[in-house]
Amino acid sequence: MMERTKELNLLVRHAAGKTRKRLNEENRYVMGGKMQTVQIMEETLESESNEIALYFAMSRKAEEEGHTEIANYLRDIAMDEAWHAAEFAMLLGKIKDTASNLEIMLEDEIKTEKEKEEAAKVAISEGNESAFRVFTWSMYGERNHKEGIKEALLKLREKVKSTMTNH
Ligand SMILES: [Fe+2]
Ligand SMILES: [Fe+2]
């Protein structure tokens, strides 16, 4: 009898442990970004993205200083960092099918164009002319991206439509 109770207790404890473990895992999934690996990947995507900017800027500096070979190498590293960042963006589920990607980025470009315009106003009101210049220059860049993505979306939709009517 004693043996049986002990055995049963062990079984119960084992089952409880398993359930607790499963619940913990499910909770982590429900909370999404709270999972440690996911959190680290989000942070890594951010830091890799920062490195792209820094390496590109450093490459330009090296070019200005006449160190062409170093400038080219720094540019290569920037591209490597971009690929690292891209891998994490994919792992984190941020990349969809092309039509959805274009729609997401169209929204993003519309938003960033407005933000750059606002930022340029702030910069000029604070007398920061170089910031004003770069905000304005990149605002036009975002505007071009916006128009380009719109065009790509239209072309993609036409392509889908024509393949649908051809079948
Ligand atoms: Fe990296
Ligand atoms: Fe952009």
TrEMBL record:
<feature type="domain" description="Ferritin-like diiron">
    <location>
        <begin position="31"/>
        <end position="160"/>
    </location>
</feature>
<dbReference type="InterPro" id="IPR012347">
    <property type="entry name" value="Ferritin-like"/>
</dbReference>
<dbReference type="InterPro" id="IPR052773">
    <property type="entry name" value="Anaerobic_Peroxidase-Rel"/>
</dbReference>
<dbReference type="GO" id="GO:0046872">
    <property type="term" value="F:metal ion binding"/>
</dbReference>
<protein>
    <submittedName>
        <fullName>Rubrerythrin-related protein (Modular protein)</fullName>
    </submittedName>
</protein>
<dbReference type="GO" id="GO:0016491">
    <property type="term" value="F:oxidoreductase activity"/>
</dbReference>
<dbReference type="InterPro" id="IPR009078">
    <property type="entry name" value="Ferritin-like_SF"/>
</dbReference>
<dbReference type="InterPro" id="IPR003251">
    <property type="entry name" value="Rr_diiron-bd_dom"/>
</dbReference>
<dbReference type="InterPro" id="IPR009040">
    <property type="entry name" value="Ferritin-like_diiron"/>
</dbReference>
<dbReference type="Pfam" id="PF02915">
    <property type="entry name" value="Rubrerythrin"/>
</dbReference>
